[in-house]
Design brief:
Layout lengths: L1 E5 L4 H17 L4 E5 L2 H6 L7 E4 L2 E5 L5 H9 L2
Parallel strand pairs: 1-2
Antiparallel strand pairs: 1-3, 3-4
Helix pairs in contact: 1-3
Length: 78
């Protein structure tokens, strides 16, 4: 599984990255977490509100900062 954090590097973007890493660790899912900072790449992926979270190329959350528990549900597809 490939998880991408899409955002400029602001405090919320960095917090989402840390929370996503924690969610992956808690679930034990085999996933990589990458932070995309490049605005052109963020727009190409369809994220117009940041921070955004992409799982396997699909935007699954944007414009806020979900909790670790919410991220676990998002990542699992619950």
């Amino acid at each position: 599984m490939k998880i991408e954090i899409l955002g400029s590097g602001c405090a919320k973007c960095r917090a989402l990255e840390e929370r996503a890493k924690e969610a992956v660790k808690k679930t034990g899912i085999d996933a990589s977490v990458e932070h995309i900072f490049d605005l052109d790449k963020i727009i190409q992926r369809g994220a117009f509100s940041t921070p955004a979270l992409s799982v396997d190329g699909k935007i699954v959350f944007s414009g806020g900062l979900p909790s670790v528990d919410e991220l676990i549900k998002i990542i699992r597809g619950d």
